[in-house]
Every structure is written in structure tokens, then in C-alpha cells.
Amino acid sequence: MNKNQLVSNISEKSGLTKKDVELVINGLLDEITGALASGDKVQFVGFGTFETRKRASRSGRNPQTGALIEIPETTVPAFKAGNKLKEAVK
Predict the structure, then answer these.
(1) Where in the sequence is the domain holding 46, given as residue range(s)?
(2) 52 and 32 in contact (C-beta within 8 Å)?
(3) What is the spatial distance between Cα 77 and Cα 85, in angstroms, rounded to a whole number?
(4) Do residues 30 and 57 share a domain?
């Protein structure tokens, strides 16, 4: 499912216009992104938790030359599914 399909499905189920649903979804995604950028967690009980994790620096290889390179430490977004979501997917 892509974003347009999600907007359409929610619009049909809620009776809201597609434009209103898209505004809400965009607002939700902006808030989650902003919270993660500032180092906060976003938790939806039963659904899951969005958080950031540190990925340690490591050695890698340049695929074109085969030369060793050092990949620096970075922060990446992560999602951990909640129990209700895990049960629904089983």
C-alpha cells in the first residue's frame, strides 16, 4: 500500500475528504520526523515505537576499487512493533 492508497482508504472509512486526510497524515509524519530528529521516541501503545539508534563505525570496502574505507558512526531511525501489531500479522 502506498500513501495515496492509504489516504483513499481512510477517506472512505472516515467520511473525510482526501485533502483533509492527506493533511493529517502529512502532519503526523512531520511530527514523528521532528521528534526523531530531536532524539525523542514516538510510541503508539499496541502498534509500536519509532526511535533512533546509533550505528557504530565500521570498516567496509569500496565496491569499485576494493579499497578499505572507514564508515563513520551514524544515527538511524528504527521501528519496533508492538504486541497487538505482531499478533495481527501472525
Answers:
(1) 41-90
(2) no
(3) 19
(4) no
Global confidence as pTM? 0.81
Q: Which helix (H) or strand (E) holds 85?
A: helix 83-89
Give the cell for residue 67: 579499497
Count of CB atoms situated within 10 Å of the CB of 55: 13
**DSSP secondary structure letters along 22-78:** HHHHHHHHHHHHHHHHTT--EEETTTEEEEEEEE--EEEE-TTT--EEEEPPEEEEE
Provide the percentage of residues in the chain whose pLDDT is more than 70: 100
User: What cell numbers appear for 46 in the block?
Assistant: 499496541
Confidence band, pLDDT 50/70/90 cuts, at residue 72: very high
